[in-house]
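User: Hey, my collaborator sent me this sequence without any context and asked if I could get a structure. I don't really work with proteins. Can you help?
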Amino acid sequence: MSEVNVFHIKENMDVNDDGSTDVTCPECENEITVAFSNVADDSMALIEAIACPACNCTLDQVHPSESLNKKIADHVAKELLKGLELDLGKALSER
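Assistant: No problem. I've predicted the 3D structure and written it out in structure-token form, which is a compact way to encode the shape of the chain:
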């Protein structure tokens, strides 16, 4: 199996000039803005809980924004393609 490049969510988040980042509420799926420094790690757990401005749920974790989901999907697709190319090359060389 080929080496997999790990996608680090936090380091791939878009950070606005004011230090905030867009995320999605896991309850109502509304896109909200939080302080980037409040996102603990790749699990997207929050250091300090916040209330979603749309549904008022108290959140201790958020989900990726639509743009971050696209980055994640692109990364996964590239890794799968790379793996398939390596597997195909190996299969053809064994012939």
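In plain terms: Helices lie at 66-93. You can pass these tokens on to your collaborator as they are.
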